[in-house]
């Protein structure tokens, strides 16, 4: 089996921000400007204790003018602070929203080009969560917490610098007590929190998967009596998620150890400061600066402890998102940076590629394919289909007919062997060229939420109503569309007009007519068709086939009887022809 990239349940959490940085490429200037504003805003806060300290010393010296200057500077700082904080907040959230939007677009783009094999291999709920909830969480974080995080980080850094300027001795004492203790606390926290938060995100993904399964297969679960099984599974996943959330919350309590560190640091500072003042080595104003600034430092640390859970959650979400982007990056992507691996064999995503003739031979050469390692489904199957030929593929369930159809239409790439159209390996063709030449009408055509017209128009080039109506008329399907409540404008899909399996295939055939491919592969619906729909399908297929190659995965004897050439498959091999 070809190596298939899979999303990791616990993606690499190391250097997440560094790995995310290349994705900020287009917004780097904005990010830097926002950061500069944030630093300036923070500086106005950090300067306050220094100005108060200077004021205290002027007061003790009886320097009235100096005191008034300090008061004026404090007032100016307060105004400047207001202005700069507001500006930095606006800038940050604007740039952050842009980055999130670009990430969202990139995810959509990557998922739309991701190989079918990759998409089928992932639990759909988990994929959905990464592509939606986790990006939404990131957006919320950017809006609500990022400005605070930057302010806190800036305050911690700038305050330390200012204190060293005042008294290296007191500042060193502060750091000697404060920094090692905080590092120990943070290390303990990281050790407990990294796996806990990753497990919580993975558990949430599992809940989403189970939930999605219910929505998708509710009919089967109800009629088959499987509701209890599902409920048990859902409760089990919910319980796992609850326990994972409790564990990550417990890891947060480690951060409260920081308060013990705060108490010890204040005590050391007051004892040492008092002694230095008594010895005349520092002024009272300097001790005031230290006391106020240390308070600020502790406030920041306390705020940081409140934010740290949110930051952790966001970093885990970001790591999962980067994992998704790295796993879906195809060979053609320039890639955001060296940390991105390039796993899925991006099939048929070439942007250019050779052009092929409007009618050509379809040549399947010794293709092998496995979904799961060690369980080969097609074992070196070869088949040549001439232009304009009508071929039926028959065989028992599980013989590999649908798999072959997906290989022939380029939805899967063979593990070995190749599929050629007009002498070209499908892998060499651009996505547009491939879609122009080979079209699959699947067994179950999926509807998007919208009108029949919206659904019929889901082909390259977004055809207008006139073109769609002409295609409907060409396939002799006007009586069918006219019979629907609003004709072509009838809403279809969930909660709207229900269409039968055969009618869904009619939609697939109209789409094929709009594309005008050289090869049409029709995976016949297995459901029983009412006589009207069966007749419409027959007429539409006959009209459509004209001079193009038609491959029908035949589930009905009547279809097999009508086809001049029938290939019977069994266990991934051609069993017989005729
Ligand atoms: N997404 C998948 N993951 C794993 N195994 C799969 C997947 N799709 C199909 N298979 C397996 O591959 C084998 C061939 O399936 P395939 O659908 O191609 O057969 P088929 O001849 O089209 O059957 P049917 O007539 O029932 O549609 C089967 O054993 C099936 O269980």
Compose a concise summary of this entry.
InterPro entries: AAA+_ATPase (IPR003593), ABC1_TM_dom (IPR011527), ABC1_TM_sf (IPR036640), ABC_transporter-like_ATP-bd (IPR003439), ABC_transporter-like_CS (IPR017871), P-loop_NTPase (IPR027417), Type_1_exporter (IPR039421). This protein is an alpha/beta fold and 578 residues long.
Structural overview:
With 578 residues, the chain is α/β, with parallel strands linked by helices. The protein has two domains: 98-328, ABC transporter transmembrane region fold (Up-down Bundle); 362-577, P-loop containing nucleotide triphosphate hydrolases (Rossmann fold, 3-Layer(aba) Sandwich), CATH 3.40.50. Helices cover 62% and strands 11% of the residues. It is built from 19 helices and twelve strands. Strands 6-9-10-3-11-12 form a six-stranded mixed β-sheet, sandwiched between helices. The protein starts with 15 loop residues before the first helix and ends with a strand. The relative contact order is 0.10. Residues 331-351 have low confidence and may be disordered. Residues 362-578 form the ABC transporter domain. It is a multi-pass membrane protein. One of its GO terms (molecular function) is ATP binding. It comes from Streptomyces uncialis. Keywords: ATP-binding, Membrane, Nucleotide-binding, Transmembrane, Transmembrane helix.
